[in-house]
Each structure stands twice: as C-alpha cells, then as structure tokens.
C-alpha cells in the first residue's frame, strides 16, 4: 500500500472512531428512547452500514423485516439490535476516546512548540508527560517528540482499532448462518405459495381465454365447414353459398390463430425463442415511450425461466417509466458475475415508486422472488428511481 493510501485510511479510520465516540455517548444519553424496537432497528442499521463500508466487503446480510403490524420489528434482529446498544456504548466510547485523546493532544504539542513564550510562566504548556516548556530547548524537543509519537500511534493503530470496532459491530448485528437459512426458507416458502397462486390464476386465465375465445371460434368454424359439406352433398352447384361459408371459415381460422398466438405470447414470448434475451431486450427498449439506453455485458447462456422473468420485469418496469415517472431518459443495464445475473433499470423521473401500492412493481418482485432472486427499489420523492434485480442463473 502506498503512503498516500495509507494516510487516507488513517484519516478515514480516525473519522470513523470519532463518530463512534459520539455515537456511544448518544447511545448512553438516549438509551430509553433507543430501546424502542423500531428506533433500535434504525440505529443498528446505521451502524451496520458504517461498519460494512469501512471494511469494504459485507460480512453478512441484514435483511429488513417483512412482517406487518405490531410484529414488524419483532424477532431475532430486535434482540441483536437491543444488544448492540450497550456494546456500542462501551466500544464506541473506549475506541473513540482513545482516538480523541491522540488527536486532541497533537494541537497542544504544536502550540507548545511555536508559542510557548506567549504564555505566563505558570500557564505554559506541558506537552510531554506533564513536563513544562521553559525555553526553546524543551519546546523544540518535547513538542516535536509528542507530535511524532502521537502521529505514529495514529498511523499504526487507528486503522486496526476501526476495523476491530467494525467487526464487533457486524458480529453483533449480522444474522448467524442458522438465522440466514431460516430467513431464506421463510422467503422461499412465501414465494412458493405466491407462485402456486399465480400459477393457478394463470391457468384459469388461459383456460378462460381458450374457452371464450379460441374454442368458440373453432366451434363456429367446424359448424360452417359441416354446413358447407352438407351443401356440397345436397346442391354442389350452389357455389356462391359455398364460397361465403368457406370465406367465413377462413376468416374465423385466422382470428382463432391470432387469439391463440396472443395466449401463447403471455406464457413465453416468441421473441425470446427467436432473438434471445439480448434481442428481446433491444426490442423492448426500442419500443419504450422514453428514450432508453441499453447496456448488456457478456451474460453467456441464461436459463429460459430466467430469460422470461428478466424480459417481463424489464418490460413492466419500462411501462411504469412511460406511464408514471415523467422521465425524459431511462437506462437498462444487464451484467453477469459468476452465477448471478444483475439487471438495473433507472430513470430520471419524479420517483416515489412503491410496490406496496399494488402497482406493476409488485408483479416484478413476485416474479424475481419466485426464482430465489432479490429486488431492491430505490425511488425517493423527486427521483431518480433505480430498480435492481439479481437472479441465480447457474455457473
């Protein structure tokens, strides 16, 4: 590591420790208020995010609670959040006070070195082990020595102390392996039930479309052909009537084929089979009512189920952009890292998108979660809106 990068890490670690000191003191002063589960959760999330950013790589996930009502903030995470309060008060004050004493004593040392003569004899600085500065000899010796020692201490210890505090934070707040597994099972159980319900509803819709549309037209066609055959048998010279029956049968056949293609298209878009995911997304973005930039990396081969989910999710997201966002530009970025396919849809619209309002975003989330994927929606009021989807697609 270069010297410049090392000093940048020292400064960042020092800032982290000083903020931890303030946080520890605030925890002690506001302890009764922070014992409220919702506030404890928010307080813990903030510390978890700080620790994760300092270490650079998330050590463990911390999924947000999904339950509604009174139990929205109950469960294992609440216990960890409340446990973090005394741990933060102790570690934050201990580590932060050490950093504060180190940084705070650098200033007296600098003052003692240059301005010792400006103080009254009884008030002169005592920079090093409480030794008074009585002349230039002690000022130019003790002051720089204290600066060098404290700077060396900060250089060597601040990054280590900050990492230790961050690891303690993540050890307390991050879910254990068993908790993560239980949470994953709960998510899969819920999404499986949602998928089964959606599957049943989709089958009923397809059956209804075929029964009310395609089947009715096929029955009409069969009746016309039966009449035509009877006419041909009884009066083969009635060509005009036969021509009308055959024309009606031909038109009915084309209409039935059109309806049948429409039903098939809702199951698996033909464009995916014809042009693949890249071509399908290119067509979707080209048809969007808002100018949309498409960026697709090397995604290799993607399972058909994942392709269909990505296609429908991007199509629905861009439809929302056109109808509701008031955006002037949008973008779709698709990339792959190992066995994870990432899809990011952004727009510069007014924001405020919320899948809890029953919009198409709920459908996007349901499709992605059904394949054990994740969806994150960042849409503050005023925009921009970013929808991030990740799906497992095999290595």
Automatic annotation (TrEMBL):
<keyword id="KW-0472">Membrane</keyword>
<dbReference type="InterPro" id="IPR003594">
    <property type="entry name" value="HATPase_dom"/>
</dbReference>
<keyword id="KW-0597">Phosphoprotein</keyword>
<dbReference type="GO" id="GO:0016301">
    <property type="term" value="F:kinase activity"/>
</dbReference>
<keyword id="KW-0418">Kinase</keyword>
<dbReference type="Pfam" id="PF02518">
    <property type="entry name" value="HATPase_c"/>
</dbReference>
<dbReference type="InterPro" id="IPR050482">
    <property type="entry name" value="Sensor_HK_TwoCompSys"/>
</dbReference>
<keyword id="KW-1133">Transmembrane helix</keyword>
<dbReference type="InterPro" id="IPR011712">
    <property type="entry name" value="Sig_transdc_His_kin_sub3_dim/P"/>
</dbReference>
<feature type="transmembrane region" description="Helical">
    <location>
        <begin position="93"/>
        <end position="119"/>
    </location>
</feature>
<keyword id="KW-0902">Two-component regulatory system</keyword>
<keyword id="KW-0808">Transferase</keyword>
<dbReference type="Pfam" id="PF07730">
    <property type="entry name" value="HisKA_3"/>
</dbReference>
<keyword id="KW-0547">Nucleotide-binding</keyword>
<feature type="domain" description="Histidine kinase/HSP90-like ATPase">
    <location>
        <begin position="305"/>
        <end position="395"/>
    </location>
</feature>
<feature type="transmembrane region" description="Helical">
    <location>
        <begin position="15"/>
        <end position="36"/>
    </location>
</feature>
<protein>
    <recommendedName>
        <fullName>histidine kinase</fullName>
        <ecNumber>2.7.13.3</ecNumber>
    </recommendedName>
</protein>
<dbReference type="InterPro" id="IPR036890">
    <property type="entry name" value="HATPase_C_sf"/>
</dbReference>
<feature type="transmembrane region" description="Helical">
    <location>
        <begin position="139"/>
        <end position="158"/>
    </location>
</feature>
<keyword id="KW-0812">Transmembrane</keyword>
<keyword id="KW-0067">ATP-binding</keyword>
């Amino acid at each position: 590591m270069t010297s410049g990068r090392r000093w940048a890490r020292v400064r960042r670690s020092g800032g982290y420790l000083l903020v931890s000191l303030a946080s520890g003191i605030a925890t002690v002063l506001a302890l009764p208020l922070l014992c409220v589960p919702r506030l404890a959760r928010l307080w813990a999330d903030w510390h978890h995010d700080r620790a994760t950013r300092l270490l650079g790589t998330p050590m463990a996930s911390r999924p947000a609670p999904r339950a509604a009502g009174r139990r929205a903030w109950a469960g294992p995470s609440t216990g960890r959040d409340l446990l973090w309060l005394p741990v933060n008060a102790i570690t934050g004050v201990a580590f932060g006070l050490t950093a504060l004493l180190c940084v705070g004593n650098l200033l007296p040392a600098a003052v003692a070195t240059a301005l010792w003569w400006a103080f009254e004899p009884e008030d002169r600085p005592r920079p090093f082990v409480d030794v008074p500065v009585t002349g230039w000899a002690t000022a130019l010796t003790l002051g720089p020595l204290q600066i060098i020692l404290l700077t060396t201490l900060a250089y060597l210890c601040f990054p280590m102390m900050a990492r230790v505090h961050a690891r303690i934070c993540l050890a307390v707040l991050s879910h254990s392996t068993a908790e993560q597994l239980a949470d994953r099972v709960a998510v899969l159980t819920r999404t499986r039930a949602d998928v089964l319900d959606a599957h049943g509803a989709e089958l009923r819709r397809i059956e209804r479309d075929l029964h009310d549309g395609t089947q009715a037209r096929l029955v009409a066609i069969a009746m016309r052909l039966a009449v035509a055959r009877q006419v041909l048998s009884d009066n083969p010279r009635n060509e005009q009537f036969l021509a009308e029956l055959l024309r009606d049968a031909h038109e009915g056949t084309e209409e039935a084929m059109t309806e049948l293609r429409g039903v098939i298209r809702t199951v698996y878009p033909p464009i995916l089979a014809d042009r693949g995911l890249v071509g399908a997304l290119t067509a979707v973005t080209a048809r969007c009512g808002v100018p949309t930039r498409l960026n697709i990396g090397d995604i290799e081969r993607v399972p058909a189920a994942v392709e269909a989910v990505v296609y429908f999710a991007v199509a629905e997201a861009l439809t929302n952009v056109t109808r509701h966002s008031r955006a002037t530009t949008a973008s779709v970025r698709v990339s792959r890292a190992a066995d994870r396919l990432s899809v990011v849809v952004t727009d510069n619209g007014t924001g405020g998108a919320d899948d809890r309002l029953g919009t198409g975003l709920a459908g996007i989330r349901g499709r992605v979660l059904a394949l054990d994927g994740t969806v994150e929606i960042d849409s503050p009021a005023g925009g921009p809106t970013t929808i991030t989807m990740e799906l497992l697609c095999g290595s």
